[in-house]
Amino acid sequence: MAAIQVLAQQLGAVGIKVTPTFPQYASRTANLTSGNYDLAIDNNAGLDSTPWTYFQRVYNLPIAKQQTAQLNWERFSSPADWKLVQKAGTTPLTDMATLKSIYSQLEKDFLQQLPQIPVWYNGA
After folding, report:
1. What is the reported pTM?
2. Of 12, 70, 86, 92, which residue is the least packed, with the fewest Cβ within 10 Å?
3. CA 17, CA 29: separation in Å to the nearest integer?
């Protein structure tokens, strides 16, 4: 909760007004899965050995009325990037040139287009 307050203060310093709320777990989950929120702090992604898991999580399609399993709560639709995620998932880990190309494109698109702000990764 302290992180939410710090982020709200920092966003306010650059002119973005944020009013922190602290819903109970069940309400928060219902809001996330239904898309009934403006901004949320989400730190449910786990550590993984490749970027694929993260990109699979944020670009997952199709978008459902009730998103589940922490997949694409932002409801961002980029079929081209989803195809890149799927390609990365079938590319051998030894094919570093192809994976680097795919992940570089996904990272660029993520930072330019996705309504998500990567802030931190827990204590990692």
Report:
1. 0.78
2. 92
3. 23
